[in-house]
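Holo prediction. Input below; ligand is guanosine-5'-monophosphate.
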Amino acid sequence: MVVISKKACRQPKGRNHNLPTANSKLFIFAAVFMKPIQEIYPLLEQPRKIAITTHQKPDADAMGSSLALRLFLEQLGHQVTVISPTNWAGWVNWMPGVKDVMDYEMNKQKAEAVLDEADWLFCLDFNIFHRTKTLTEKLKQLTCTKILIDHHQEPDTPSFDYGASDTSKSSTCEMIYDFIMGAGKGELINEDISECLYAGLVGDTGSFRFPSAHAGVHKIVADLKERGLKHPKVHDKLFDNFLENRLRFTGHVLLHRMEIFYEYNTALIAIPKSDLLKYYIKTGDTEGLVNYPQSIQGIKLVALVIDRDEERKWSFRSKGDFDCNTFARTYFEGGGHYNAAGGRSSDSLEDTVKKFKEVLKENAKLLQ
Ligand code: 5GP
Ligand code: MN
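Structure of the complex:
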């Protein structure tokens, strides 16, 4: 990926800034390439201070990949801290090492000190800084080496020095597995790392049902099993680990908040704040809701919108050839993958739902 960017104008740390004029264009092009992740391998031998961050409200893939990478790098002698931009769901709170993850919003000063001291910053499961919400400005200011590992569309490559960005990968956890194996250090994948990686594979493939669950994913699972993975534990922690209120909330939402538009093969769930309060809904309790309407015959697009304090947060899921990433980018300031994306709106719940219904008409042909 060659992208001319603001970074081309910035003076790289520790380099000769007097560029030769004849070759300067060439140099600038070279300077803005995100170098391949493989070039990191020889640099892993020297112990460093490393920070790892991921997207806001980290899910199983975001938290799993961050913790797996940390547990791997620590075995190589690095000093590693995982910083989450925000809090996270209870159903990732069992992951090995999660207790030491810093919540940026809760510990701004400490987290910023860690970031200021870091030699390297790994950015996992997101590819543009604004996905980290209030952490965005801090990440932009950092001059340390930034390394991207991500599987979403349209990466902001000029923001990173090294990286792997591959939309054919099922999950960032798959990419962390590839990273460890590529470094020739598969023997360091212990039971804890295998649990973190497996959680991300399960989460991002919808328990191996999405098209992204290619043969390689199943081969990774087989390898993790041979390295000690106890997969029933992970399923139990991810899916059978809620309180009664969450199940009753799900029933309420499906009964009262779901609309089906058969002419557009679309289902919509719109959740007002009052429902969240009534059922004591916490971060992560709404995960998976968007999948339920997909069980209705013929449904091609499911949209879920939740009235959060600061914004209306959209989730989109599709089957087949409807591009959720483009839809989310075009109408709801978002993005993601082809069959799963998210977005946001500053409008009221009522207004953003109205807009959704209008844009459904524009997309009628694509939804047939
Ligand atoms: P979810 O609906 O589960 O929150 O997100 C589905 C996918 O879209 C995930 O891969 C997530 O990272 C991505 N995504 C969710 N919200 C946004 C957003 O506002 N912007 C972008 N670019 N991606 C998003
Ligand atoms: Mn992911």
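The CA atoms of residues 70 and 117 lie 17 Å apart. That is the main takeaway for now.
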